[in-house]
Structure formats: C-alpha cells, structure tokens
Design a protein that fits this description.
The complex is a heterodimer. By secondary structure, chain A is mainly α. Chain A has 20 helices and 2 strands. The longest helix of chain A has 32 residues. Chain A is globular and about 75 Å long. The chains are: A mainly alpha, B mainly alpha.
C-alpha cells in the first residue's frame, strides 16, 4: 500500500467515515434526528465531491490491480450516493411515528453503500464477493429493522436465508474458477478464457461448473426468475423506505457485479452465455409482469414489477452480447432512471404510511388525487415513468435498450418485441393505481397528513431527475457512454 | 414435502456430478479426492437447506456449504504451486464473511422467534397470498 492507492480509494474512505461520523454524532447528542440527518447529508455530499475529484483523474488501478478507477466506477458511485441520500431523506417520516431510531438506519445504509461502491470498483473476483457481502449484510438488517413487527422480521429471514444460500453458491463457483484459472483477477480470467476460445487451452468441466455457480449466485441477487422467490416477501415485509432502497441499491449493485463479471471476465465467451441471458431475460420480465397483474398490495406489486425491470435490464446485456455495445449504455441508463422513479414511488407510499397502521393495500390510494393532490400527481408521474411513457426518463431508458436489441438482431430482436409487449401489459397494473387515486372515493375521512420538508425535498429531487433525464437524456448520456466505453475497452 | 422431494432428488445428482467433475478437474489424484469431498459436503449442505424446516438448521446448512467452499480453496491452494499463499488468504476471508453472516442471521432468527414463538420457517407465511 502506498500513498496513491489511498487517494484512489478516497471515495470508499469518505463513505465509511460518513457512516462512523453518524454513529459518533448519535453518541454525542443522542436522539437528535436533525443532527443525524445533517451529518449524513454533509458526509454524502463530501463523498460525492471526492468521487468527482478522484474520478477526474485518468483511469488507473490500485492495490496490485484489484481496485480499478474508471468512468464506470465514478458513474456508479455517484448513483449510489444519490440513492442513499434520497433514502435517508425519505426515512424519518416513516420511522418517527413507529419510534424507530434514524441514526442506526442511516449508519447501516451508508455501510451498505460502501459495499456497493466496492463492487463498482473491483476487478478481482474475491473483492467483488467481499463488496457483495458488505452490500447485502446491512440489507438483511434493514429488512428486519422494525424488529417488533412480524412482517418485517419475516421478510428479513426470507431475504437472509436465500441471500446467504446464494452467496455460498457464488463462493463455490469462485473457488473453482480461482483454482482452475490460477487467479482471481478479472483480466487474468479473461485471458485464460480467450485462450479457451482460441482452442489453445481445453475448457475443463470444473471451470464450466464454476461459471454456472457464479451465474446462479448473481441471478439470485438481481432476483431473476427462477431465482426470485425471496423478493415479494422481503419487499412487502420491510419498512417502506427500506423496500425502496432494496429495490434499487442492491439491484444496481448486483448489476455492477454482472458488468464486471460478464463483460470483463467472461467477455471472450459472449457467444456461449448469450443464450442463458436471453432465457433469463425473457422469463424474468414475463413472469414478473404476469404475477404483478394479480397483486392488490402496492408494495408487493412493485416488488414483482421490479423483477420485470430486472428482465428489461438483462435485455441490455443480451444486446451487448449480440454485438451492440449500446446495450450497455441502455443498461446503465435504465439503472439510473429506474433508481429515481422507483425510489420516488416508494417515497409516496412511505409518505402515506406516516400515519401508523396505514397499509400499502390498493385501497389506501383511493381518492388520493383529491385528498392530497401533490402526492397524487407525483405518484402518477413515477408510475407513468415506470410504464415507459414519454417524456419521462423511463421512456428514454426503454427506448435505448429496445433500439440496441433490435439492431443486435436474431433472438435478441425477439427479446425487444417481448419487452414492448411486456411494457404494454405492465401499463395495466401501474395505471390501476392511478385509476384508484382519481376515480374512487376516499375510504376514510381522515384529514390529510402534513409531510416534512425533507420528504418534499427528496420527492422534488426524484421528480426532477425523472423528468430531466427524460427531456434531456444528454445530461446523463455523456457520462454513461464514457462508463460503457471503459467497460468494453477492458473486456 | 415438496422440499424434501426436491432435496432427495438433488442430493444424489449433485454428489455424483460433483464427484465426476472433481475427478476430471485438476492434475493430481489427491486434489481430486479433496474436491470430491468438498462437493459432497456442499451437496449435503444444499440438501439440508432445502429439506430442513428449522431456521437454525438452515443456518447450519449454509455454514456447511461455506466450509465445503473453504475445503476446496485450501485444497487448490496446497496442491497447485502457482496459486502460492492465495489459498490461505481467501480461506481466512471466507471465514470472516461466514462469521459476519452467522451473526446477522442469528440476530434475525432471535427477532422473528420473539414475534412468532417458533423457529419453523413453514409457519412464517403471514404474507403468502
């Protein structure tokens, strides 16, 4: 370790320092929610500035080539910081009425962010695994954060059991890949695979099994069908701000892992894994949407819809493997757009649940458009964006992916058709919520709630991102094409 | 019931399959023996995870799977010279991760046991629709 290594991992250090600072503030002035949130937001701001400063340096590696700083790292780190900042801003309105502490919530969340940031920068299988664990372990804790609530703990134990089961599978694959290629470095694995493709090295069954186990482990983490069983219960049971985070943070983090694993390490064998991704993408988006149609709990519905969105993002990966590098840009843009619109939708649910005891059933939304017009309008906007209607970010994200998939041709073009059909089917269940908000009478006469300034601030940010990235996608595309370029240059 | 059947079908397939793969992989005979043992341990852990209903037993099964991974890693490390000391380092890291996971897992099991008064996962079905 030397001085320049420390500078390169500065964003990670800033993130961990933020988490520790929040804990210290809570010890010095216990129970002061505002101080905690101010510390968290200042710390995240500093992390973002550090990330940008370090990111303006030319691409480089640290720690013997295990940690890589490139445009992809910077882009994903900034996205994670934005996601965590918005989750922290949305949380107090939900946590305070239930007497849950904000400080521990924020600390655990920022530690999870440091794991996600480690994933985005790792080009070493072992480091990727450590980042993954650092990201999901806090996630298990957060899912069970309302520990006296039996739904929350039930969601947590299902999330934990299947999550650590899949981690063990991933690790078994890692052991074989490491043993048979002789290195955990992504670049070394890729060079071995290049020799395999050129028939200068034999493809041993052990190596094939290793990759199969790695793929299975990752498929669990992104909740691809048929490895999605934990998702609905974990999402429905968790406290709503946590659900928002779980549906976005670990998903984008696991996709970062997929990019490093599939594009960089397994890049030479694109043709071999393309059929696997096509099948995963097709089943994931279709089944996710079909089951979402039958749900009458909005959180559970959004859980199934998040499975469908996983499928859409996998189409971007398939388009890349089919020979269209824009597929990666589509995947990254979709990840960013999905983060903002999905967090926004969950924030509206969290705002409604400020009154303790309010469920996330569809009936809760009846008459919302008249009772709380602003929340109604924002929820409508986020749902339209999730559907993919212009001029929102969701539309542009789907457009980029579909375009890349069509240009790739073959079975990937078939995926594009399936995606369009699925998006149309998804409109039915998203718009059903809108119908409830504007065309049903309110179920109760309870007066409208007063929402905190933080909540409105966060909702404004999510709304601005959803609209701006739809109207002016160029704002994001520059960074994204640099990130995708860094990835394909290495792969 | 379904889990028992699935587990009973999966376990022999995994044991035989992993045994064969273990025999095919690697250079020396004794490394293969270790890999086969590791595969069998992993399959037993997987079977336990799928077949047991008790949350604590499932946790123990996951630990068994992680230990199987560690056995494979240490075997690779000691039989293949070019891997050097990497095997020991990875094994230590895996042990640390396993400990962290067990801590979080037991905390969650205690939390849900206080709410439900049972460790049986079949009875955690409040959200099933």
């Amino acid at each position: 370790m030397n001085g320049s290594d420390v500078i390169i991992i500065a964003p990670l250090i800033a993130a961990i320092a933020t988490a520790i600072a929040i804990l210290v503030v809570d010890i010095v002035v216990p129970g002061r929610t505002n101080a905690v949130i101010a510390t968290a937001l200042i710390g995240l701001g500093v992390t973002a500035v550090v990330t940008l400063t370090v990111g303006s340096m030319p691409p480089t590696t640290a720690y013997g080539g295990a940690y890589k700083l490139d445009a992809l790292t910077t882009f994903l780190d900034l996205l994670f910081v934005a996601v965590i900042a918005m989750t922290i801003v949305f949380a107090p309105d939900y946590l305070a009425p239930r007497r849950l502490p904000v400080a521990e919530f924020a600390t655990v969340l920022v530690f999870a962010m440091s794991g996600a940031m480690l994933i985005s920068a790792s080009v070493d299988l072992l480091l990727l695994f450590l980042g993954l664990e650092l990201m999901v372990l806090p996630g298990y804790l957060l899912a069970g954060y309302h520990k006296s609530d039996s739904y929350s703990t039930e969601g947590a134990i299902k999330y934990f059991l299947l999550g650590s089961f899949s981690s063990a599978i991933f690790l078994f694959g890692l052991a074989f890949v490491w043993g048979l290629t002789g290195s955990t470095r992504v670049a070394d694995v890729a060079s071995v695979l290049t020799q395999v493709v050129n028939h200068t090295l034999p493809f041993s069954p052990g190596l094939a099994m290793g990759f199969a186990f790695l793929t299975t482990g990752v498929a669990f983490k992104i909740a691809a069908v048929p490895f999605h069983y934990w998702t609905p219960d974990a999402y429905q049971g968790s406290p709503t701000p946590v659900t928002g985070y779980l549906s976005v943070g670990p998903k984008v983090g696991a996709f970062a892992l997929i990019l490093r694993l599939f594009v960089e390490a397994l890049g030479p064998m694109k043709a071999e894994w393309l059929p696997v991704v096509i099948v995963l993408a097709a089943t994931t988006m279709t089944l996710g949407n079909l089951v979402a149609l039958t749900q009458d709990n909005v959180k559970r519905m959004l859980a199934y819809s998040s499975i469908a969105h996983t499928g859409y993002m996998l189409v971007g990966l398939a388009a890349y493997a089919g020979g269209q590098p824009q597929g990666l840009e589509g995947l990254l843009f979709y990840g960013a757009a999905y983060s903002f619109m999905n967090l926004g939708a969950f924030a509206v649910i969290a705002a409604l649940q400020k009154r303790a005891g309010v469920t996330s059933q569809l009936a809760t939304f009846a008459g919302l458009g008249r009772k709380e017009p602003w929340l109604g309008v924002l929820m409508t906007l986020f749902l339209l964006s999730l559907t993919g209607i212009p001029p929102t970010a969701g539309f542009f994200a789907k457009a980029v992916i579909i375009l890349a998939a069509v240009q790739a041709g073959g079975w990937v073009a078939f995926l594009a058709v399936l995606l369009v059909v699925n998006a149309a089917a998804a409109a039915f269940y998203y718009l059903r919520v809108v119908v409830y908000m504007y065309m049903r009478d309110p179920a109760s006469d309870a007066p409208p709630l007063r929402h905190g300034r933080l909540m409105w601030g966060g909702l404004t940010a999510a709304t601005a991102a959803t609209i701006l990235f739809g109207l002016f996608p160029g704002l994001l595309l520059g960074m994204i094409s640099a990130a995708a370029g860094a990835l394909t240059a290495a792969g | 019931m379904i889990r028992v059947i699935v587990g009973a079908i999966l376990a022999p397939i995994f044991i035989v399959g992993l045994g064969l793969i273990g025999l095919a992989a690697g250079g020396s005979r004794s490394l293969d023996a270790y890999l086969v043992l590791s595969g069998i341990l992993f399959a037993i852990g997987m079977f336990g995870f799928l077949a047991r209903r008790n949350a604590i037993s499932m946790l123990m099964s996951i630990e068994l799977m992680l230990n199987a991974v560690n056995l494979a890693i240490v075997a690779f490390g000691s039989f293949i010279p070019k891997l050097g000391a990497g095997g020991s380092v990875i094994a230590l890291l895996v042990m640390a991760v396993a400990a962290a996971e067990a801590t979080v897992g037991l905390a969650i099991v205690i939390a849900i046991f206080r709410n439900r008064k049972t460790p049986l996962v079949d009875e955690y079905d409040a959200m099933r629709q």
